[in-house]
Amino acid sequence: MTIPRWFEERLALERFRAKYLGKPFPVHSTFFFGEIALFCFVVLVGTGLYLALFYEPSAAAVAAEGGRLPAAYASTLAIDAHPFGALMRRIHHWAAHLMIASVVLHLLRVYFTASYKRPREANWVLGLGLLGMTIAASFAGYLLPYDQFSVTATAIGYGIARSVPWIGPTLADYVFAGQFPSPETVPRFFAYHVVLAPLALSALIALHLVIVLKQKHTEFGVAARADAAEGKWIRGIPLWPEQTALMGVLFLVIVAVAAALAAFLPVHPSAYFGPPQPATPDVKPDWYLLWVYGALRLIPGTLSVRVLGATIGPEAIGAMLVPGILSLLVVLVPWLDRTPSTLYYAEAPTAGPRRLALGLAVLVLFLALSLAGFGTELGLSVPVLWIVTVVAPVATAVGAAAYARRRAERVGVSRTP
Amino acid sequence: MDRRRFAERSLKTAIVAAIASVIPGVLTLRGRSRSAATKGVEAGDRLVFALGQNAGQAITEGSFTQNEAVLAYPEGKSDNHENLVLVCKLDPAALKPPVDLAGTAHGVVAYSAICTHLGCTVRFSEEPMDQAPFPHIHCPCHGAMFDPQRGGVVLGGPPPRPLPQLPIKLNDKGEVLVAGAFSAPVGVKA
After folding, report:
1. The whole model's pTM is what?
2. How far is CA A340 from CA A16, A117, A256, B94, in A?
3. A406 CA to chain B: closest CA distance, Å?
4. What is the ipTM of this complex?
5. What is the mean pLDDT of each run of 10 residues along chain B (190 residues)?
6. Hey, of A179, A189, A292, which one would you mutate to test binding to chain B, going by the most B CBs within 10 A of its CB?
């Protein structure tokens, strides 16, 4: 008996192949963003496992570099001192950037093709949960090298948690294990970053994929016309072997890109930032949190509201209220959009003038707030930045809506791409 | 009670008991209280350099010239970040209310170095800058500006409160001693 037959007899692989491995995958470059995010996650787990073998999650002072340094910082320097260790650390860092970027692009694709509509609302919310969890995992990872940049970034996070009305100080103590910097914070954040976040991400990714498998992806409008002619049929290449081969190539490309970036563009050199010390250096957050940073710089100190005995100050407005309202708006998109769902088909970005206008306006708002993060460097004063932050999204919305309406008149409203 | 209702009630009781049993564990996540582990600033503490080659040595009136400032800790209490203070040497004639003049000596004024916006360490601008009065204290994180000559009031940017002032006095060796408590709570407040 041959080995394949031996397995076939026991596991009925042919039935499994017929049922699942023929799942059609869409062939369009924008449908790869979710996969890229997944592959980045795999790279992060792999490199993260390697780093965890050498990293020491403790702020206790140890003898290193001819002095006394926090153990976490000293072990980071030791990893960086070895060429392979440095490469792993940089690939880990770059893969995190690539993962967040691809999740954001995936989100934009789903939004602008209206693929969030009924029956896919749950996966929209789940996907946003994945974005939030990815950013939270990255933020927890900021602290681990325990250099001056890490400690400053986490201290700002601690300040933001403290500024939450009513429960701030208690909340901050629970999340940061006492007043930051506390000796208990590093082990706590190590557990968040290395155990909690990967577990939660794995579970959410699995659920996200099972739902896609069950509901199927949306198809572009060309499929709608073909369906009308030939009857309903999901078009694409089968999971095995075509899509699997594509995915294999894509995974290797992601590894190659992350490795090339790591080799040529150093990222977060801990030795450059130095060990934690009392003075605060000039720091900016990574690109995906620049908009919160910009909002914090724009909200004046005089803006604060007293509600039920608590003060909602400028720091809570900039870092909690503004991001909270924007996030809620994005979460509610499937319910804010009252246009009917085609159930099966993606729509053209210009098919819904309101959707296009709101989407681009929010995108421009994020960019304008990020720009405000560079106000000092660009020599733009706070009032000028305020005007940009208000005018640019509104102008974008008006322009985008007008463009979409004119296009709809030309090609017919109901047409999908 | 029939068997189905008994099973349902048992299940509900088990769920409530399971949740309740987790609460003591959750409460331990709060972490140790800082006030028990470290000491705050007290009157009589000697202020020492927080940074540089003189770290740990006493700051004296002669340690800096006019319109300079240094970061300092009360001696032996550097383990609590909230004890960090910015000791400024200013023109005594330029000090105006609401600065606590009794808490200054020969133009030496001390403020909490923890920004009231989000807790970064503030800096003293030692040279005049565009669009900013001189001298001023600023925060590198989100662009806060404070006036050291007028009790640390907010000149611009996002901080909700002035920098708390720490009253100081000089002893006969010219060393800077703490003379009282901070004028307001230090750091970020909800």
Report:
1. 0.92
2. 36, 8, 43, 69
3. 43
4. 0.88
5. 94 97 92 69 93 90 89 91 93 92 94 95 82 86 93 92 95 93 88
6. A179
